[in-house]
Amino acid sequence: MSTAGLSPPSRVRPLHGNCLCGGVRFEVTGPFRRANYCHCSRCRKHSGAGALAQGRVPRESFRLVSGAELIETYRPPQGMAKAFCRVCGSSLFGGTWPDGREVSIRLGVLNGDPGIRPQYHSFVASKATWETLPDDGTPRHEQAKRKRMTSGRAAALGRRQIEPFSSCAPSAILGGCPRAGGSRRRNRGRAARATLRDESR
What are the chain's domains? Predict the structure, then answer.
């Protein structure tokens, strides 16, 4: 889908967003890297819709203005974070919230044009039985969208992503958690396949 003529957020013209009750407010000060519709059962149940539209921005292009104390985070087993306002229930952020290098923002909580349009559909094999996918010309992926990586990139990723596969606290991992060695080996095995699971779930 073409994004010609769209103006991305910037420091000069930030894009604002908030939850339904207005308690959580944030701003985006840089372009979105990508956007998609996720049809996985978790995103459907979290959003209450047929799919969840989301976009990702670098951490440095995101600023939480107010309401940090109102944000609750649910982390399903083997899934990504689901952050929401504990007052009104608005679905706000996902992916690796709150500590990842990117922030996954639910497009429905933005107050203006994000300067990007959803570029693909993911987890269409899990779509609701009542849903008919729109003929919007964007790619459809049965599961997560996969991205090819170089072997060097894959190895580096395997070294970094320890925490999601370990029950130890981050400080324990850095200090030599007894489970960390096994986690590193499992991560390298995953990375060696030279694919990266999308963070949609």
Answer: 15-126 (2.170.150.70), 147-197 (no CATH)
